[in-house]
Design goal:
The protein has 135 residues and is an alpha+beta fold. The chain has helices spanning 16-33, 65-77, 95-103, 121-127, and strands spanning 4-10, 42-43, 49-50, 58-62, 81-86, 112-120, 132-133. The relative contact order is 0.27.
C-alpha cells in the first residue's frame, strides 16, 4: 500500500521503560524530519481537533548492537532518513546533553540502542536485514 516504510529497531536487552522511551523519541524524530509523512488531524465525535499521527504504520523490530550498527551504516549509504538513540542518552536530562553525547559517539559505530529509518520500502528492508519483529 505504501512505497515508503518506517522501521524502528530497538535493542531487546533494554528495560521495558527504556524500550518505550526510545521508541517514542525515535518516532518523534521521524515525524519531525518527514512532515509529509504526517496524516491529517484527528477529529472526535464532537468535532474537536486532536494531534496528527504518522500516516502509515511503523514496524518495531528487535535488533542487537551488531544489527543496529549494520543498519546504521546501510541507512547512511542509502541516504535514508534516520533517527538514532545511543546508550549514553539515558544518563542525560535534556536535549542539549542528548545531542552532545550523541555527537561524542564514534560516527561509524555508535553505541546504539535504537534506530528509526524512513525511506523507500526496498531500501529500508535492505538496511534492516537481520532484524526480527519485536516480540
Amino acid at each position: 500500500m505504501f512505497d515508503t516504510k518506517i522501521a524502528l529497531l530497538i535493542h531487546p536487552a533494554l528495560e521495558t521503560w527504556q524500550k518505550l522511551n526510545v521508541t517514542a523519541f525515535l518516532a518523534s524524530g521521524i515525524a519531525g524530519a518527514v512532515p509529509e509523512a504526517m496524516g491529517e488531524p484527528y477529529l472526535d465525535g464532537a468535532g474537536r481537533a486532536h494531534a496528527r499521527l504518522l500516516g502509515q504504520p511503523m514496524l518495531v523490530f528487535a535488533a542487537d548492537l551488531p544489527v543496529l550498527q549494520r543498519a546504521w551504516v546501510q541507512a547512511i549509504e542509502r541516504d535514508l532518513v534516520r533517527a538514532g538513540y545511543v546508550r549514553a542518552m539515558f544518563a542525560t536530562g535534556h536535549d542539549a546533553d542528548n545531542r552532545a553525547v550523541f555527537a561524542a559517539e564514534p560516527a561509524e559505530a555508535p553505541d546504539l540502542v535504537g534506530l528509526a529509518l524512513y525511506g523507500p520500502k526496498k531500501a529500508v528492508d535492505k538496511a534492516i536485514k537481520g532484524a526480527a519483529l519485536h516480540p
